[in-house]
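Researcher: Predict the fold of T-lymphocyte activation antigen CD86.
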Amino acid sequence: KSFLNHTAYLSCYFPNSQEIEIKDLRVFWQKDSVEVVHEVYHGQEKHDNLSPKYINRTKMDIDKWTLQLLNAGIVDEGHYTCIIQQKDKGSSKVIHTSECLLHIIANYSQPEIARLHTGELKPNEYLNLSCSSSGGYPEPKQMMWLISQENTTTRLMSQMNVSQDAVTKLYNVTSKLNIPVTTNTLTNISCLLHLGEQLGSLVSVPLAI
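Model: Structure tokens for T-lymphocyte activation antigen CD86 follow.
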């Protein structure tokens, strides 16, 4: 995983137990088995075969056999293969391959609750609220509402509307809530955005009614 516009680190996991020198090897990375991302040919970086979008965006750490992909974007998500070849009697043979999947993460803004009505609310009227969060990636799992009254908290699932920016590929999320106003009871309403098992959740500042 790498954060959007940060450096992604893709490792070859090459043990090099025989301590072969880099000048005796050809090391290259491919994306989705199609594009050449980086190539080191007998110790020298070679640019002839590179996909244009990776030129001047990669660096190799020879000591760690790791590729640095600079300014990682959502279009860089995908399947990467590291291939190491050694010269053998005039030809080259593959002595090591490894694979990794790159996932890009962009932080969503803190969910924010807005009232969709004006004026004072009277008892038994309905409260119309929306919750929104923007600029994140990947697509979130769900958005839910937490309604707390006295010692009980109710979770309400409501439809999550998701839109994706055509250029940046980042997601914006909104959800709406329509609940009756209770009398003589303090109600705290929060909005929770669940991003997935590994990414956790974001919660809004509670709204007190």
